[in-house]
Amino acid sequence: MRIYLKIAVYLVLAIGLSFAKAGSYEDFFAAIKRDNPEAITDLLKRGFDPNSLDPAGRHGLFIAVQEGSLKAAEALIAWPKTNVEWRSPKDESPLMIAAFRGHTDIVRKLIARDAHVNKTGWAPLHYAATGGHVEIIAILLEEHAFIDAESPNKSTPLMMAAMYGSPESVRLLLKEGADPMMRNELGMSAVDFAQRGNRKDAADLIAGAIRSRQPRGRW
User: Fold this and answer.
1) Exposed, middle or buried: residue 207 (CB in 10 Å: 0-12, 13-18, 19+)?
2) What pLDDT, in 10s, does the model give residues 78-122?
């Protein structure tokens, strides 16, 4: 009889723990959606895994940055067990998303946690340049981001800034030494990107940088 009672107690405890974990799982992702850092930290202190994935296979920190739940993102970044270098199936990191969306403080905090500034393929600098976020571009370059990083089709941050970013982002990249002569696998240069995006201001800046590289003849 005692053995059966022990088994029954164990089963009750196991079922209780299962329900508690299930509840914590739902509460964790709900807290991210609500941008509630206190609830997140409380769950983490109780042992919840910060690297749990939601039903769609997304990391909590990635969701927070992607959806603009910045207080939730800060709480997760501050938690030492959070994997800040989780990658999505598209090989996107939280730092890349923060760079694209212009979340400057989050970018700084992720870098302080040793998030990778450089990576193969698309890099954070591509994303910052695409968003035209000058301050983030400057931060990444200060952290030794490779200015002429090549995407899988060899497009550079300057090309992305030329087509999608701001004139200021193009100007900064050129000032910091981005190569305006590079071409991607389709044979397109940064000037071609600017023209395709109907960005005359960017095209003029890049053309001027190319002219400045030409040797001047003597008369």
Assistant:
1) middle
2) 999 999 999 999 999 999 999 999 999 999 999 999 999 999 999
* CATH code, domain carrying 6: 1.25.40
Based on the domain organization, do 81 and 160 belong to the same domain? no
Q: For 188-197, which contacts have Cβ atoms below 8 Å and span 24 or more sequence positions?
A: 188/155, 188/159, 189/159, 190/156, 190/158, 190/159, 190/162, 191/162, 193/155, 193/159, 193/160, 193/162, 193/163, 194/162, 194/163, 194/170, 196/163, 197/162, 197/163, 197/164
Which residues are CB-neighbours of 201 under 8 A, at least 6 positions away? 167
Structure tokens at 154: 């060899």
The answer to whether position 102 is within a domain reads: no
Two tokens at 50?
Answer: 């910060």
C-alpha 206/C-alpha 180 separation (Å) is: 6
How many CA atoms does the CB half-sphere of 66 hold within 13 Å? 12
Amino acid identity for residue 11 in this structure: L
